[in-house]
Amino acid sequence: MFKSASDEALRTRATQTLAGGGRRLTRWLPFLGPAMIAAVAYIDPGNFATNIEAGSRYGYTLLWVVLWANLMAMLIQTLSARLGLATGKNLAEVIGERFPRPVVWLYWIQAELVAIATDLAEFLGAALAFNLLFGLSMVEGALLTGAITFIVLYMQRFGFRLMEMIIGAMIVAVACGFFLEIILGKPDAAPLIKGLMIPHFPDGYSLYLAAGILGATVMPHVIYLHSALSQNRIRVTGDADRKRVMGYYRMDVIIGMALAGLINLAMLALAASVFFGQGHTEVATISESFKLLTPLMNQELASIIFGLTLLLAGLSSSIVGTMAGQVVMQGFMKFTIPLWLRRLITMLPALVIIMAGLPEQQVLVASQVVLSFGIPFALVPLLVFTANRSLMGNLTNKRYITVIGALIAALIIALNFYVLFFTLLGE
Q1: pLDDT of residue 368
Q2: Helices H, strands E: what count in the chain?
Q3: Fewer CB within 10 A of the terminal residue: the chain, N end or C end?
Q4: What is the three-class DSSP state of 398?
Q5: Which own/partner contact pairs does 405-408 have at CB distance under 8 Å and 24+ positions apart?
Q6: Contact 47, 269 (CB under 8 A)
Q7: What is the distance between the alpha carbons of residues 33 and 114, in angstroms, rounded to a whole number?
Q8: Which residues contact 173 (CB under 8 A, 6 or more apart)?
Q9: Which has the closest alpha carbon to 420: 85, 75, 412?
Q10: Terminal CA-to-CA distance of the chain, rounded, Å?
């Protein structure tokens, strides 16, 4: 992964930091990056869809779901980075080595289905942004999205640090966009704080949306990807170095996930303030949001800023989704395919849905619920492996971490069963 001069320079700076060198205020910089790439998946167009609908339908009521989903993501991504650092392998590789071959095949199939659901949301979102901002057709927007993401992915050959900088800049731009939107939207403080602090489900559909928020926030494919981003990234020579590097990775996760969490909270709060707060409780699509933001906020730039953040989120998450797909295939099946071929295969379902003219909001929310069903397949093995001392050494989870992780997994599985048997099937 690290073959360019810039990547080698990063490893050298990291080694100097571990040896006690470098300036105190910048020692942590070489270790930042993996969580920022993983964080992109937490602000993709699926998040736009679920957060906007949740905010317009229920106001600030479901803010607590976003908050707790993000805290779960911090723990899960920390465990993923821990596994990659401790073993020098990613989660898919460890599963491929330790599970029976038929189970590995099943894991690979479900992971690829999750990757398709992920790409579906990303392509729909980016294509929609091109349509809303520049008047391109949805098909033209999807094809342009595929071309742009392939060009950026091709730049990996110039160093992975460059990829981290590009994707990090996209996230910062999205964050700045929503910061401006929140200033313009002026959300009410009292109901916002109440929505953050008091868990509440107004009705059965809010549970369905909660599952979508969870799937859009704790995305299964980046659990695999983050472990790959942290494996063999930094040279370590002993247990003490591993502990120190893990401390820096933990800081990386906190920064990346906190930024993604604030963006998601801002999305929902914006919808609650502008739509729910002015009686537009049926605003349930990204297109409607784009069209209504400017007249409701009396700010001409409101819709443009929203469209640009959607475009950047769709493009960056599509790049990360393709990277994750390569990690999954290589880890489970021990082979890879050319990036252009993976890009083409995973974008085809999105093109079919676009050409069929299916409602984008329903497809986006449904795709995020599919992702929620994929979380336990990645999370349960991750908890088992990171609790295994023979595998993890001095980076083995403390017992209370494993217990918290198990409770999170149980909660996600229970929510999935509720959605499947009571909401989707109408029972």
Answers
A1: 66
A2: 18, 0
A3: C
A4: coil
A5: 405/75, 405/76, 405/79, 405/379, 408/72, 408/75, 408/76, 408/379
A6: no
A7: 24
A8: 308, 309, 312
A9: 412
A10: 49
Q: Where are the domains of the chain?
A: 5-10+31-372
Largest CA distance in the chain: 62
Residue 280's φ and ψ, nearest 5 degrees, are -95, 70
* 352, amino acid identity: V
Integer Cα distance of 231 and 89 in angstroms: 6
Q: What does the CA dihedral 113, 367, 306, 172 come to, rounded to 10 degrees?
A: -40
Q: What angle do CA 134, 136, 140 make, to 5 degrees?
A: 140
Per-residue pLDDT of 287-307, as tens digits, reads 888 888 888 887 778 889 989
The reported pLDDT for the residue numbered 278 is 85
- Class level of CATH domain 5-10+31-372: mainly alpha
Q: Which of 414, 400, 401, 313 is nearest to 74 (CA)?
A: 401
Cβ(378)–Cβ(91) below 8 Å? yes
SS3 labels along 277-340: HHCCCCCCCHHHHHHHHHHHHCCCHHHHHHHHHHHHHHHHHHHHHHHHHHHHHHHHHCCCCCHH
Q: Which residues of the chain have pLDDT under 50?
A: 1-2, 427
Report the candidate in 258, 334, 295, 274 with the shortest Cα–Cα distance to residue 93: 334
CA angle at residue 264 from 308 to 92, to 5 degrees? 100
H-only helix segments in 59-90: 63-87
- Cα dihedral 11, 12, 16, 22 in deg (nearest 10): -90
Place of tokens 């609908």: 53
For residues 367 and 120, the answer to whether their CB atoms sit within 8 Å is yes
Token reading at 373? 């069903």
Rounded to an integer, what distance in angstroms lies between the CA atom of residue 50 and that of residue 360? 12
Nearest CA to 247 among 82, 403, 39, 399? 82
Give the integer Cα–Cα distance in Å for 165 and 229: 14
Structure tokens at 333: 């099946």
Q: Please give the Cα distance from 171 to 175 (Å, whole number).
A: 6
For residue 256, which of 217, 290, 285 has the smallest C-alpha distance? 217
Residues in the chain, how many?
427
